[in-house]
Design brief:
Length: 240
């Protein structure tokens, strides 16, 4: 390795520019100063504390940095981008053409670069739908959603997955379909008597009593009993 005469002299202990009082420049001495001042200590600071010639200190530091650069491994090459799969192209078509998302938004969703996504859009010949087409598509979706068309049929009709349907529902401000069974019971004196007799007095489970009442649930039976203010003692007196 080629380096300056000053560096060679400093490393070999000659100390061409070192003070005669302190002797040669020593790596261990420089490291002790670095531990005190930190790794960013300059050559001038090290020379001042150690009483050495700044030129000798710089020569040693320069030699160490050169050796470190030559011994450090070369940076690894980035991995090539993954090839586009048919599923990626289908998602890109749905987001870009059907939903009208920008190329940058599609790239973020697909974990691709903007340039690669735009190139794939040009390669596939994709074009966004006009505002009129999107409006008609959204109007049709609203109509089918209100009519109670199943999610499977909506997926087949619009070419989107279940998550895409839910996103469109939220974007259009539609009411989500409830998955819970809603109790709708027209309570009559006969049904109240049934709850009083079987649930409160006889002690049958609310789920069993609910099966005897059209449209009722377990919670509906319990709520009806509490709203009527029936307790066990009152039920016994009423049944006498």
């Amino acid at each position: 390795m080629a380096f300056s005469v000053n560096a060679a002299a400093a490393l070999n202990g000659a100390g061409a520019f070192a003070t005669t009082r302190r002797g040669n420049v020593d790596r261990a001495e420089i490291e002790r100063v670095r531990r005190r001042l930190g790794s960013r200590a300059t050559a001038a600071q090290i020379a001042k504390i150690t009483g050495r010639c700044e030129t000798d200190v710089r020569a040693v530091l320069s030699f160490e940095q050169t050796a470190l650069r030559e011994s450090s491994p070369s940076p690894a090459r980035p991995d090539p981008p993954a090839p586009w799969t048919p599923e990626d192209v289908r998602r890109l078509r749905t987001m870009y053409v059907d939903h009208g998302l920008s190329a940058e938004a599609c790239a973020a969703a697909l974990n691709r670069t903007d340039e690669a996504t735009k190139a794939q859009i040009r390669r596939q010949g994709l074009q966004r739908r006009s505002k009129d087409d999107r409006s008609a598509r959204e109007a049709l979706f609203k109509t089918l959603w209100a009519a109670g068309v199943s999610l499977d049929d909506l997926e087949a009709r619009f070419g989107i997955q279940r998550s895409g349907i839910q996103k469109m529902v939220r974007r259009l401000g539609l009411s989500p379909r409830s998955r819970r069974r809603v109790a709708s019971v027209d309570w009559t004196p006969e049904l109240d008597q049934l709850v009083l007799r079987d649930f409160v007095t006889a002690g049958y489970p609310a789920s069993v009593v609910a099966q005897r009442i059209p449209g009722a649930t377990k919670s509906a039976v319990i709520s009806r009993a509490f709203r009527q203010g029936w307790s066990a003692s009152r039920a016994r007196s009423a049944s006498v």
